[in-house]
Amino acid sequence: MLKVKKKMNNSEDEGFEIIEAGKSEKHYWADLWRYRELFYFLSWRDILVRYKQTVIGIAWSVIKPLLTMLVFTIIFGRIAKLPSDNAPYPILVFTALLPWQFFSTALSDASNSLISNQSMISKIYFPRIIIPSSTIIVSLTDFGISFVLLAITMAIYRFVPNWKMVFIPLFLLLSIILSLGMSFLFSALNVKYRDVRYVIPFIVQFGMYISPVGFSSSVVPDKWRFLYSINPMVGVIDGFRWAIIGKGVSFYWPGFILSILLTFLIAICGFLYFRKTEKTFADRI
């Protein structure tokens, strides 16, 4: 447990107050608000590190989704000739890449965030949950770039998006909640077990193959759709496609409800585990 002495000044005497990390839930939430400027600083720092005075940082945010879209379009659209839900295959893939790349980038960056900021954690007290949470902002920036690329792709194919696009913020919020829950869990585990960082790339890569990124969920047999929806990203990706493409996209409501329940379950479990182990970060790191 990290303890910091805070000097107290008054007219009669001087004393010291012991500030303990996570002393109570009430104090913890108050500290989150009090240290909100640290959240802004860390978020802005990560954005500057990613994009300022770099070429590869900006270029990679454009090249990566374009190359992924091209590969999936050739393999699943041209060779396998899978259905595209009444939309050009590149658009079908791009609508899935929006939430998937947001989730994968957030998870990868947040999982190593505590180790990357160990000098701060070992020296001063602040709610540690701020560190993995701040990495979400960089992922949102990449999401914005990918969304512009999707708009350009739709303009090239003269594809008119559906009016249901107004629901995209809701599906994005669901993706943020899932990303935060997974990030809290794996960032805390990474402090205790340093080899966790080697597991994250495998999870991200394996997750992309079992998620409907390069293909439509409609190719999954009906008897397996509910079981397939145990992967929470299935509901998020299907939601994005339903909102952008609209007509022709099969929206499986039982699976989507399951995705919502699992998302909140993961978020709660991730937060609780983070809070349980947070007091030991300064000693372990």
Structural topology:
Blueprint: E1 3-9, E2 14-20, H1 25-34, H2 36-51, H3 56-79, H4 89-111, H5 113-116, H6 118-121, H7 130-156, H8 168-192, H9 196-210, H10 222-228, H11 232-244, H12 253-277, H13 281-284
Antiparallel strand pairs: 1-2
Helix pairs in contact: 2-7, 3-4, 3-7, 4-7, 4-8, 4-9, 4-11, 8-11, 8-12, 11-12
How does this structure look, described?
By secondary structure, the chain is mainly alpha-helical. The chain has one domain. Helix content is 69%, strand content 5%. The chain contains 13 helices and 2 strands. It has a two-stranded antiparallel ribbon with strand order 1-2. β1 and β2 form a beta hairpin. The chain is globular, with a radius of gyration of 22 Å. The N terminus is likely disordered.
